[in-house]
């Protein structure tokens, strides 16, 4: 059993077809998957932190939930300063309106720990939290839109 104070880090990575890199990192029993995709020219998009304008940005991302045969939407607000994420909020969006959702709050708490303080360039890769993998995909979709909007 892992104590709450101990952290185990076991990074693994491999290249899979189509220029996708899959990295698995285990930290204290939570598995985080990171996937980096190359653009249509098989090249990673590259930005400098100075390419991003300071400010708050909002975008939505969607994901499909087979269990309920429904497309869900996550609203993401990111605050950027000097190319780094300094603030983050997420919302469940239903019929164009924000709704209170305890699962979204738990997701936000976990994802904040992962991305606040990091350069937005590092957060652009797919980041999936076990147990919230579909929400994570919608989150990443929204962050990628924010990243494009925030470029000078």
TrEMBL record:
Residues 69-150 form the FMN-binding domain. Coiled coil: none annotated. It comes from the Bacteria. One of its GO terms (cellular component) is membrane. Keywords: Membrane, Transmembrane, Transmembrane helix. The keyword Transmembrane helix applies. GO terms for molecular function: FMN binding. InterPro entries: FMN-bd. This is FMN-binding protein. It comes from Candidatus Dojkabacteria bacterium.
């Amino acid at each position: 059993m892992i104590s709450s104070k101990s952290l185990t880090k076991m990074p693994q990575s491999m290249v899979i077809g189509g220029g996708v890199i899959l990295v698995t990192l285990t930290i204290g029993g939570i598995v985080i998957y990171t996937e980096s995709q190359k653009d249509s020219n098989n090249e990673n998009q590259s930005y400098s932190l100075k390419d991003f304008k300071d400010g708050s940005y909002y975008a939505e991302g969607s994901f499909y939930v087979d269990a309920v045969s429904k497309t869900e939407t996550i609203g993401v607000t990111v605050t950027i300063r000097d190319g780094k994420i300094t603030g983050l909020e997420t919302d469940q969006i239903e019929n164009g309106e924000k709704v209170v959702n305890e699962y979204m709050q738990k997701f936000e708490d976990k994802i904040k720990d992962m991305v606040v303080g990091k350069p937005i360039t590092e957060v652009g890769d797919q980041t999936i939290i076990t147990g919230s993998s579909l929400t994570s995909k919608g989150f990443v979709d929204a962050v990628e839109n924010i990243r494009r909007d925030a470029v000078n």
